[in-house]
Amino acid sequence: MNEVFEKVTIRGMELKNRLMMSAMVTNFSTSEGQVTDRLIAYHRERAQGGVGIIETEAAYVHPSGKGYANQLGIYRDDLIPRLKRLVRNLHGHGAKAAVQLHHAGRRTSRALTGYEVVSPSAIACFEGDIPPKGMIVADDTGGTLPKELTQEEIGQLVDCYSEAARRAKEAGFDVVSIHAAHGYLVSSFLSPFTNKRQDAYGGDKKGRCRFLLEIIRAVRKEIGELPIMVKISGDEFVPGGLSLADTKEIAPLIEEGGADAITVSAGTVGQSGEDYPIDKPTYAFLRSLPMYTPRASYLYLAQGIKEKVHIPVIAVGRINTPSLVREIVKHKKVDLVALGRALLADPFFPRKMEHGDEKAIRICIACNQGCFENLFHQRSITCAINPRVGREDEMKFDPAEKPKKTVVIGGGPAGMETARILSLRGHSVSLWEATDQLGGQLQLAYKAPGREEIKSYLDFLLAQMERLPVEVFTKAKVNSSFLRELSPDILIFATGGRPWIPEFAQSDVDGILTAEEILRGEKAAGESVIVAGGGLVGCEVAELLGEQGKKVTIVEMLEDIIPDEFSDTKKYFENVMVKYRIRVLTESVIEQIAKGTVIIEKRTGETESLSADTVVLALGYASNLNAKEEIRPGPGCKVFKIGDCFKPRKIIDAVLDAYRLATSL
Ligand SMILES: Cc1cc2nc3c(=O)[nH]c(=O)nc-3n(C[C@H](O)[C@H](O)[C@H](O)COP(=O)(O)O)c2cc1C
Q1: Number of the ligand 1 atom closest to the C-alpha atom of 342
Q2: Which CATH superfamily is domain 503-619 in?
Q3: Ligand 1, atom 13: nearest CA belongs to which residue?
Q4: C-beta 27 within 6 A of ligand 1
Q5: Assigned CATH for 3-376
Q6: Catalytic residue among 184, 283, 446, 457
Q7: CB-ligand 1 contact for 593 (6 Å cutoff)
Q8: Each residue of 100-118: pLDDT tens digit?
Q9: What are the pLDDT digits (tens) for 115-143?
Q10: Exposure string over 432-455, b if 16+ CB within 10 A, otherwise e
Q11: Which helix (H) or strand (E) holds 460?
């Protein structure tokens, strides 16, 4: 018996299963918060995927509470007709619909809203324009001092929530959800970290809960018997903020106040690794739950809350596999499981799980490249391994009008993804890989510490290659004459990139290895190592070497290591550098290597001589440009280049190349 797919009720509302899609701002609405066709198509696909209930993204109840450029709004009556259309689309595919009412509070800016930033107390997210190192904030969350709300203004905001609830009911939503987590307005009232008021809305727990409880009461008046859900941060992971012990006392107040279910997330703005209480889990300051954090990181918080209330409790946070969902539900750890990024990566997760086709699920690898990273830059979200997110109407998987004979050279992510989609669309596909195994860069990527999750995507692609009628050839070097024999209509190069080797390493110097050789475990470094290049791969290899007890120095030409990476990734590696005492030399380059000595030149012109047994090169990749030049198909064959072989970039770019091409042929 599969308990996940048993019916469950919340305040009498029946859900077909115990899976909820967690609220996620997409930035697919208009700048005024109107539902767009794109937002509908995105939601429709997730409803088709079989999830029991979809919680829309945070919808602002007043324009002063807008936190993201193209967030959903519910602050005006003229937004209702399109909200109605959104709901109809969810209902049409058997999903219940919840709308999450939201006000960003101090987590926004006047530049974005045109209004003064407001908060329970006049405490900025941070002082000045630049957030402190390690603080995780949306780019537009300024250091502006918010205005402390007066009691009259608080009353007006409660009215905004109740008006929004009326609109929600009119639009046909089944549930009204209240966002009281993550440092936005309601949660900043709940938290002693941000609420220093001495009046009825501050002080003790009861006072800090008053705003939320007034909202619940006002919403109830508008929606009658419809369920109300509340999302809280079970622990804010910040000194002086809410701890689990605190939220265990707050949750019963929320239940008594009239909520019908509680979702337990965690975190707030301001959490950072610095001065971090050591009793907290080390991942706790990484609010975007990247792949370095354990799966189901916040489950223990939801379980803690469940001990204290009688209403259903919903767990959320890096729950990304069917076995994890099953285990949580089977052992009644909580009542429902909310999936966020897992449903970006694969909207059909629930349906595939229900039908026992779990190998076909594209598991979220928590890379955050398409979702959080875009959101925090105020862009529309997508997904690195599922670029259809936000392009549901654009990227069709329709059968090919004229099936063609296609040859894909290179079995990395771009090659396999292209082969998969071409095959699904009815083209004949053969995939040719020069090495003895498929996977390309993925085979390497998951071997770095904390990046094991990447293997889930590799496993998905490998399973797809087995299942689909793609002819796969490994240890297969294709040359021009063989290609002419094959005579494909379409030839796609996905041969990847190769490590870039600088001049100083091109002569025969002992002790120079590539990051690839280390990550693959093909070669071992000496005791004292210099890593040339402080990009992501350089940092990963430095971490691996640090873990092995080596003395490591990173030499990076730019001002900072991993400059173009997401703030959480940066923060993670800053901690890695401290943990393994890795020395980081920025604005520095390797000038010369000779007999165990490496000469470093700094931007200031100074030089430093370091002794090292090994230099590991992590200086980026160069396209495998030769491929196209060397191999020529016969006349009439169309040739394309995708992924790193076109231009070395991130996985999100390689997979998007594959989708774009394979859906267009
Ligand atoms: C792009 C993005 C937008 C999000 N927006 C919201 C939001 O509007 N409201 C909310 O309560 N949580 C939001 N979250 C947090 C998710 O609901 C969820 O709690 C978090 O992603 C952890 O769950 P997951 O590991 O299943 O993704 C967002 C997450 C992402 C990735």
Answers
A1: 26
A2: FAD/NAD(P)-binding domain (3.50.50.60)
A3: 24
A4: no
A5: 3.20.20.70
A6: 184
A7: no
A8: 999 999 988 888 899 999 9
A9: 999 999 998 876 555 565 555 555 455 66
A10: bbbeeebbbbbbbbbbbebbebbb
A11: helix 454-467
